[in-house]
Specification:
Layout (H helix, E strand, L loop, with lengths): L1 E14 L11 E4 L2 E6 L1 H15 L7 E3 L3 H10 L4 H16 L13 E3 L1 H13 L3 H9 L5 H23 L9 H6 L15 E3 L2 E3 L6 E7 L14 E19 H4 L10 H17 L17 E8 L20 H18 L6 E7 L4 H8 L1
Antiparallel strand pairs: 1-9, 1-10, 2-3, 3-7, 4-5, 6-9, 7-9, 8-9, 10-11
Helix pairs in contact: 1-9, 2-3, 3-6, 4-6, 5-6
């Protein structure tokens, strides 16, 4: 397996970047003590959002339950009138994720497709010739008993065509680099699943960490009476402050195989990798982004381009860092020392094509050397 791997150390002050069900910062026990934790799902979303800013043409996937409006616009762009576009869009949405009658979304589950993929499926459906079913539906009134059976039959036939159109989805579109990296889960149709080429760990603090509680009060600006000077609102918020280790990897063999991005040219492939790496380095989960301001980039990054199986270095911190002078310096020393130990113990040197540290190089040179 050809890999690019990032091992990142990132320190945050008072923050709550990833909350659990009661609003507290997430945590986990590791090495016999409690650690601060940020889930891989949380950080992946931050990376997905940022990489779209760098290249929204190649990274155009959207994860949503609201797809009918987009599908209607696609069918209208392809020459269908508004009523037929609505009918075709509903059939396609049902084939992708089952229509939701609860009002929480167009379909019951989140689906993750790119605009070109949606257009490809719409083209497939029109190529299969839904004209006869559309005409039949237009001639029937589903509210009338005599038409109900014929309506259900025509609707089912259109749904079968839509399901067939979905299964014939082209894999050679040029706007799904994010789907190739982050993967796609489709429970109802495994043929649409895409195994993600990206590898992400949960971020764990390199040291022991307990959450703290902030008591706050808010003043009511309209309270003017001396006898009524109490706060307009009071409450508590949990937070922590931690130095995190996190791993991000990219399986290049998988990313550029025929089911992913093999159809990209060399320039596009390099662009995809570089924009992803930049986003993986700089993205930060946006929870409480204004009130706690956790926009801190990594202080240290170790990057590898190598062959072999993916390798986490989190066990550098199985024994938690103890320091009265901050955690970053000691964490960096432990990380590099652990890598040297593993490299010697498991004879990994031959598989390492590139090994880059930031610092001393800056981010652009760091990414350039890895790609």
């Amino acid at each position: 397996m050809d890999l690019i791997e990032l091992h990142l150390l990132q320190s945050f002050p008072v923050t709550c970047l990833n909350r659990d069900d009661v609003g507290a910062p997430k945590s986990a026990r590791f090495g016999g003590c409690q650690r601060a934790r940020i889930s891989s799902q949380s950080w992946k979303r931050a990376i997905r959002n940022l990489v779209k800013e760098y290249d929204g043409d190649l990274f155009a996937g959207k994860r949503t339950r609201f797809i009918i409006d987009s599908l209607e616009k696609i069918f209208m762009k392809m020459g269908q009138n508004e009523p037929r576009s609505k009918t075709l869009a509903a059939a396609m949405a049902d084939a992708l994720g089952k229509l939701d009658t609860s009002g929480k979304g167009d379909v019951k589950t989140l689906i993750y497709f790119s605009p070109m993929e949606m257009e490809s499926m719409a083209e497939n459906l029109l190529d299969l010739g839904p004209e006869e079913m559309l005409q039949k539906l237009e001639s029937l009134n589903p509210e009338e008993k005599k038409d109900k059976g014929a309506w259900d039959k025509a609707e089912k036939e259109l749904g079968n065509l839509a399901a067939k159109a979905v299964k014939n989805l082209k894999s050679t579109v040029k706007d799904k680099a994010d789907i190739a990296i982050f993967g796609r889960m489709v429970a109802d149709d495994h043929s649409l699943m895409v195994e993600g080429a990206g590898l992400f760990s949960h971020a764990l603090s390199t040291h022991a960490m307990d959450n703290e509680v902030d008591f706050f009060s808010a003043v009511d600006d309209e309270k003017t009476k001396a006898a009524d000077r109490g706060a307009g609102h009071i409450g508590t918020i949990e937070f922590n402050s931690a130095c995190y280790y996190r791993y991000v990897g990219l399986n290049l063999d998988l990313l550029f195989d025929t089911d992913h991005l093999a159809h990209f040219d060399d320039v596009e492939k390099r662009t995809v990798v570089q924009n992803f790496l930049k986003s993986a380095i700089l993205a930060v989960p946006a929870a409480r982004k204004n009130s706690m301001f956790g926009w801190n980039p990594p202080e240290f990054a170790m990057g590898f381009k190598r062959s072999g199986q993916p390798l986490s270095l989190v066990n550098a911190f199985e024994k938690p860092v103890h320091s009265a002078n901050g955690y970053l310096e000691q964490s960096g020393k432990k990380l590099t020392s652990h890598w040297e130990t593993l490299k010697e113990r498991f004879c990994l040197s031959d598989g390492v094509a590139k090994e880059v540290l930031m610092p001393p190089v800056n981010m652009d040179k760091f990414i350039e050397q890895l790609t």
